Amino acid sequence: MDNEKERQEISLIGRLFSLEALLIAMGLLSLISGIIRMQRSQIFWGLIIIFGSILFLFVRKKKQGEK
Fold first, then answer.
1. Does any domain span residue 42?
2. Which of 23, 11, 10 is nearest to 49 (CA)?
3. Rounded (10°) angle between helices 40-66 and 19-37
4. Is residue 13 in some structural domain?
5. What are the φ and ψ backbone dihedral angles of 9, each rounded to 5 degrees?
6. Is 50 inside a domain boundary?
7. Tell me, what DSSP letter sits at residue 17?
8. With contact defined as beta carbons under 8 Å apart, do 53 and 27 qualify?
9. Are 45 and 53 in contact (CB under 8 A)?
10. Which of 5, 8, 22, 62 has a 20 to 30 Å separation from 52 between CA atoms?
11. Is residue 5 part of a domain?
């Protein structure tokens, strides 16, 4: 039973620090920093990163649903 609990904890940590979550966090940081500094390029890249990572999530879920 301890082995199963450890596996669940590792799975939870893996979900928290997944690539998608890190990409969205990076996009949000870029967006917020661009708004604070009023730099259009940072705002643009923040929006692109957020949009791309959300699009990636939908495509990935659709591919998993086909299997």
1. yes
2. 23
3. 160
4. no
5. -65, -45
6. yes
7. T
8. yes
9. no
10. 8
11. no
Interatomic CA distance for residues 53 and 47, integer angstroms: 10
Whether pLDDT at 1 is above 60: no
Q: CA angle, 51 as apex, 66 and 30 as ends, to 5°? A: 140
Per-residue pLDDT, averaged over 28-40, amounts to 94
Distance, CA of 57 to CA of 52 (rounded, Å): 9
The total number of structural domains that make up the chain? 1
**CB neighbour list of residue 36: distance below 8 Å, 6 or more residues apart:** none
How far from the centroid of its chain's Cα atoms is residue 14's Cα?
A: 12
Tens digits of per-residue pLDDT, 13-23? 666 667 778 88
The DSSP output letter for 1 is: -
Residue closest to 46 by CA, chosen among 22, 35, 30, 33: 30
The residue assigned the tokens 């939870």 is 12
